[in-house]
Amino acid sequence: MNFSRPEYLAWLWLVPPAFLMAAYASRRKLRIYRRVAGSGAVPQPRFFRLFMRRALLCAAMALFFLAMAGPEMTSGLKPVRRQGSDLVFLLDVSRSMLARDIAPDRLSRAKSEILQVSRSFGEGRRALVLFAANPVVQCPMTSDQELFETLLAIASPDQVDAQGTVYRRAFDAALNIAGAAQREGGAPTVLVLAGDGEDHAQEFERPASEIRRRRIRLYAIGVGGGAAVPIPVAVSATAPSGLLRDADGEVVLSRFRPEVFQEIARAAGGRYFHSLPEGPVAPRVSAEIAREEAASRWVMVPANRRPIHQPIIAAALLALAAALLSGDAPSRAGRGAG
């Protein structure tokens, strides 16, 4: 059995807690019956009757979740040529990207790297996510290269309200885009991350592991030099250039952190590239993507698929009907025994 929408299987984790809550609610109601019954004049239901009604509701919920995942009976295999991959670019637009330890500044170099990778990419679609503390989908998945380049060119720190880089949220946004794109067309996804490695949360292990589990390829491009440098900012209209300062008036220094990218690449099973002042890395990244594309162009998929969600939905409806028709009141046999 295969599933056309396996991401819905995660909802099944709600079922075991629901069964435990059903058992607890049944025992609690039975205790209330016994407390009210007192001497035994009032008939009491059995625990099995109380629990079965709630268990049928939980079973119906589980079956509905299973049907949502698109179960299919498959047989045989056939080779299929994959369509071009979908590229999701993640661009750090925090203020530290305005540092000028690499010409003309980190953000401009990161944009240039992304632009070159995108232009060298043939088939497939592109999306652009800007992020600092929170991610913003600057360009949804599109095959329009001109639109993508226009939205990339205007990317700046002003488009993200909260500053302070958090890679975890950016990866979560990219995974959502990748999941939606794969449901639409089934194309594999490639993530290209560009930034300076300053992560204020250091909580990227879980999404990076999820990237690896889904077999999404990740290429991280680190932009920056080795020394700590100040961050230029626009102070006012009359003073268009100044330096970013903290609450005490001290100049804020930013340092490129390659170890963060190395750790991300390790956790996600991807590759890390350092964009050096003397030369871009876009040609190497593009060549790596092209090599992976050629190696994974043909895949084996099931030759025959037969959806089986209808009988599962029917079983869920039967369980739901049985739960609604049954009640908590004692049966006639229970009344007679009382």
The tally of beta strands, per DSSP, is 13
Uncertain regions: pLDDT < 50 for 5+ in a row?
A: 236-240, 333-338
Number of helices: 10
What integer value in Å does the Rg equal?
28 Å
Outline, from the CA principal axes?
elongated
Strand content: 15-25%
Overall pLDDT metric? 82
Q: Main sheet, how many strands, which sense, barrel?
A: 6 strands, mixed
Could you give the order of the helices and strands?
A: EHHEEHEEHHEHEEEEEHEHEHH
Q: What structural class do helix, strand and pairing data support?
A: alpha/beta
Numbering strands along the chain, what is their spatial order in the largest sheet?
5-4-3-6-7-12
Question: How is this fold's topology laid out?
Answer:
Blueprint (H helix, E strand, L loop, with lengths): L1 E2 L11 H23 L9 H22 L2 E11 L4 E7 L13 H15 L5 E6 L3 E8 L2 H9 L13 H19 L3 E7 L9 H9 L3 E7 L5 E2 L1 E2 L8 E2 L9 E2 L3 H11 L2 E5 L6 H14 L2 E10 L1 H17 L6 H6 L1
Parallel strand pairs: 3-4, 3-6, 6-7, 7-12
Antiparallel strand pairs: 1-2, 2-13, 4-5, 8-11, 9-10
